[in-house]
Design a protein that fits this description.
Helix content is 50%, strand content 8%. It has five helices and four strands. A two-stranded antiparallel ribbon has the order 1-2.
């Protein structure tokens, strides 16, 4: 009973709003906000592998870091060199950098 009262007063579940900076429209649904930005303001949309859409590459990257940690971890090169990270890797980088600069 209290849940219904608090929810109707807006105290129980606070809905996140997405504000359009160009025309001051407000959206409670992320998908509608993205669609509005794309169709009305011709903004480029960036898609994640999972299907979510974002206005900025940084937002997609942050989403991937938080929501897809396991998949991103498997892409890391750290597993390719067990026990060597980071000091041995840095030595390799320094060696390659020296070779490169010697050839200039």
């Amino acid at each position: 009973m209290w849940n219904i009262i608090l929810e109707s007063m807006g105290l129980f579940h606070h809905k996140k709003e997405f504000d359009c900076e160009d025309c001051d429209k407000k959206f409670t649904n992320h998908t509608e906000f993205i669609e509005h930005e794309h169709t009305i303001h011709q903004r480029k949309i960036v898609k994640c592998e999972c299907g979510l859409e974002f206005l900025h590459e940084k937002d997609r990257f942050d989403h991937q870091k938080e929501e897809h940690k396991k998949e991103m971890g498997s892409r890391s090169h750290r597993e390719s060199y067990p026990g060597e990270y980071p000091s041995k890797i840095q030595e390799r980088v320094d060696e390659q950098r020296k070779r490169f600069s010697d050839n200039l």
